[in-house]
Amino acid sequence: MESKQEFGQGILYTITNYIYWLFLSNIYFILANSIFLFFFMTLQQSFSNIILYFLALIPTGPAISALYYSMEKLIRTKELSPTKDFFEGYKKNLKDTLLLWIPILSVFFILLVDFQYLQGSNQILANVMLLLMIIGATLTMNILAINTRFKFRIRDIYKLAVYYSFNKFKNTIGGMFIIFLVGVLTVLTTNFLILFISSIVAYLLIVNAKGMLNDIESNFLKTSQAIQTGRQ
């Protein structure tokens, strides 16, 4: 009877910890995106402000990377120090993340402009642009996950992300489904939804990418010492 009680207390303790870790990581993600939030809440939501939104979204890449860093560590070790781990991940991966994120963001904005333009003239091509953005979002999540966990050259990260998009096709479909579901829920609720569930979404995406990350560790690293500091 006593062992059952201890087990129940252990489960409750674990659940409470996870809620706390996810909640605090979520808060830090919101704070890291405060520039975008300021522009989003103060600017008129018009397509003419797209350049300002582009600039405001530049810090979002490092924020996603830091959240990934935290969630990957939580999944791997079952422990997390939300403040330390989030800002450690932000600082360690800042330079490489920006080198990856800015070109990706540029491509997304080109696709978004094309989507906006084609909506009124060619709905089929507009849907193609939308599909490309969903595929691109999934590929981007793989890119950031690899960059968070390992230290590779920028071009090698792109190559690995593309390779595993086909090699781990089930995981690719899983990532697309998660992103699509978040998009649908956002349309049905509020544009701010992602801010409240960002840590949960990141957790699910890292769980989905776990097979890819483990495979990279097994097949593309010569020694465990080659693993990035994110594995510490």
Report on this structure:
- There is one protein chain.
- With 232 residues, this protein is mainly alpha-helical.
- The protein has one domain (2-231).
- Helices cover 82% and strands 0% of the residues.
- The protein is built from nine helices and no strands.
- It has helices at residues 2-32, 34-42, 50-56, 60-77, 82-118, 123-149, 154-167, 169-188, 193-219.
- Helix 5 (82-118) runs antiparallel to helix 6 and helix 6 packs across helix 9.
- The longest helix has 37 residues, at 82-118.
- The chain is globular and about 55 Å long.
- The chain starts with a helix and ends in a 13-residue tail after the last helix.
- The model is unreliable at 1-8 and 223-232 (pLDDT under 50).
Can you tag this structure with a few keywords?
globular, mainly alpha, disordered N terminus, disordered C terminus, 0% strand, 232 residues, single chain
